[in-house]
Amino acid sequence: MKPLTRAALLLVAALSTSAVISQVTNKAAQTQRTPQFENEDVKVWKTVVLPNQPLAMHHHDHPRVIIALTGGTMNIVEQSGATETHVWETGKAYWLPAMPPNTLHSDINAGEKPMEVMVVELEKEN
C-alpha cells in the first residue's frame, strides 16, 4: 500500500471516529427516552431529563411506576399550565396513575443536575 493511501485511510478513520464520538456526546447531553423492554403486559424505558430540557408533551394511558436512578425534583406540567411537583429519591420507586383522557403533560427537571428514571408502564388493567 502506498504511504499516501495509508494516510488517507487513517484520515478517513479518524474523521469517522470523531463523528461517532460527537454523535454519542450530543445524544448524552440531551433529554431522552430509551426503550428497555416491551411486551403485551408492560413497557419499560429509561428517561434522562436534563435541567431546563423538558420532555415533549405526552400522555400516559396506563398507570406506571417510576424508579429514580438519579433522584431530584421533577415538575409535571399539564397542558393547562397546572404543575405537580415530585421529589424522587435515588433508589426509590413511585406510583403514578393513568392520565385522564385528552390530557397531555411535560416533565421538567427543576434541579441543577440530570435526573435519570426507569419507567415501568402497565399495558393492561386487571
UniProtKB/TrEMBL annotation:
Name recorded for this polypeptide: Cupin domain-containing protein
Keywords for this protein: Signal
Region forming the signal peptide: 1-22
Source species: Tunturiibacter psychrotolerans
SUPFAM superfamilies assigned to the protein according to its UniProt record, in alphabetical order: RmlC-like cupins
InterPro entries according to UniProt: RmlC-like_jellyroll, RmlC_Cupin_sf
Gene3D superfamilies: Jelly Rolls
Taxonomic placement: Bacteria, Pseudomonadati, Acidobacteriota, Terriglobia, Terriglobales
Keyword Hydrolase: no
